[in-house]
Amino acid sequence: MSKTLFKKVDYSLSKLIHDIDHGEIGLPELQRPFVWTSSKVRDLFDSMYRGFPVGYFLFWSNEHLSSTKQIGTDIKQRKVPRLLIVDGQQRLTSLYAVLKGKSVLTEDYKETKIQIAFRPKDGQFEVADAAIKRDPEFIPDISIIWKEGISTFKLINNFLNRLSKSKTITDEEQEKISDAIDRLYKLEDYPFTAMEISSTVDEEEVSDIFVRINSKGKQLNQADFILTLLSVFW
Fold first, then answer.
1. What number of other Cβ atoms are within 10 A of residue 227's Cβ?
2. pTM of the full predicted structure?
3. Distances (CA, A) of 215 to 92, 181, 206, 210, 212
4. Spatial distance between the Cα atoms of 224 and 47, rounded to a whole number of angstroms
5. Contacts of 198 (CB under 8 A, 6+ apart)
6. Tens place of pLDDT for every residue, the chain, 234 residues?
7. Nearest alpha-carbon partner for 46 in 94, 104, 103, 111
């Protein structure tokens, strides 16, 4: 049996976003552009907020490739990523775009911003539209939650002040709203697991893994995923 060519690494969401922001994690050329709809991004955040698992990532340690792509449209500190995303690009791009308030490049090469709204009174996520942006019950763009220089205390107070101009808020409602916004902010601690493939694995084998995992658009569960790795490496 061959030596193990992959390892399991645990990440917090904030660590993943930090590594993307600094150019540590990027995309190999075999990856497709960002194709998720805003409603799918909304559902991702809803699942995380409820504490549901949303899958893991497959990374490839990069020591050889320079023909890579970065996530987002801004300039990174590191020009060539240390890790390349083999599986999980759409989720990671969605998370990065929302938490950092950054634009992403779509399949028709257009820059777009994803705006997801949140209603604290019942924990409801929606794709922001004109009506929601006018509704004081909603935070129209949750990206502001993680914006540098804005504390959750100040954000909660601003939200409650805006809402109080349209309705009377009880102490119980204020506490529920505060807890909901604080819980949303703490999604940056959400745990993820990644499988990191060794840099000794060549492009052909990694491409084979990618094709097998994504064949016929069927998502694999953890057992299927491990069997896929075993079938390639052993």
1. 13
2. 0.81
3. 20, 39, 14, 8, 5
4. 22
5. 5, 6, 7, 61
6. 456 678 899 999 999 999 988 888 887 654 467 889 999 999 999 999 999 999 889 998 876 555 445 555 455 555 568 888 888 888 998 999 999 998 887 777 788 889 999 999 999 999 999 999 999 999 999 999 999 888 999 999 999 999 999 999 999 999 999 999 999 999 999 999 998 988 888 777 777 776 776 664 445 555 555 555 555 544
7. 94
